[in-house]
Specification:
198 residues; alpha+beta; 5 helices; disordered C terminus; SNAT-like; GNAT_dom; acyltransferase; biological rhythms; cytoplasm
């Protein structure tokens, strides 16, 4: 049995609208959703969403296409994509990080490099839902102790709602951009792991 087949929160969710008549005909079917780890074949779709999401805001992408391919070859199990009708609409890419903070040695963590949502489905709560599923998934990985990320000040409230806490300013900067480092523990949730099929 694959690791993913044991994780119910990564299995496809098929939603259908209520039947519109006693004869049983459906008015329409909502898009089928699938959450799965990304593969190197998804790299171009990932980069297209990321480029549109970040270049208009910061002028640069957190990961370039060759870096995306590198991470999806190196650790695809630390990525998660949300697909609707086979089309990627949101994703997270992470990698293992052998540090407690992004600038300090010790510990083991998952460094979340990027979370992005396709422009056509923004403002629908997909980023929060995807992050929740990703954190649930990390709880099932024995190597994951905490999730770390860095973000700009205006994104701190979003990540706090997802359960992250600020650690302070990050030593990493990109041009004039400064970042806040944030963390989320992914251990110590035995009840959730037991009931999630992990």
């Amino acid at each position: 049995m694959s690791a993913l087949s044991a994780l119910p929160f990564l299995k496809p969710v098929h939603r259908r609208s209520p039947r519109s008549s006693p004869g049983g005909q459906r008015r329409h079917t909502l898009p089928a959703s699938e959450f799965r780890c990304l593969s190197p074949e998804d790299a171009v779709s990932v980069f297209e969403i990321e480029r549109e999401a970040f270049i208009s805001v910061s002028g640069d992408c957190p990961l370039h296409l060759d870096e995306i391919r590198h991470f999806l070859n190196l650790c695809p199990e630390l990525s998660l994509g949300w697909f609707e009708e086979g089309r990627l609409v949101a994703f997270i890419i992470g990698s293992l990080w052998d540090q407690e903070r992004l600038s300090q040695p010790q510990g083991s963590a998952v460094h979340i490099h990027v979370l992005a949502v396709h422009r056509t489905v923004r403002q629908q709560g997909k980023g929060s839902i995807l992050m929740w599923r990703y954190l649930q998934y990390l709880r099932c990985l024995p190597s994951a102790r905490r999730a770390l990320l860095m973000c700009e000040d205006f994104l701190v409230p979003f990540y706090q709602k997802c359960g992250f806490e600020p650690l302070g300013p990050c030593e990493v900067t990109v041009g004039d951009l400064a970042f806040v480092e944030m963390q989320h523990p992914v251990r110590g949730h035995a009840f959730m792991r037991r009931n999630s099929g992990c």
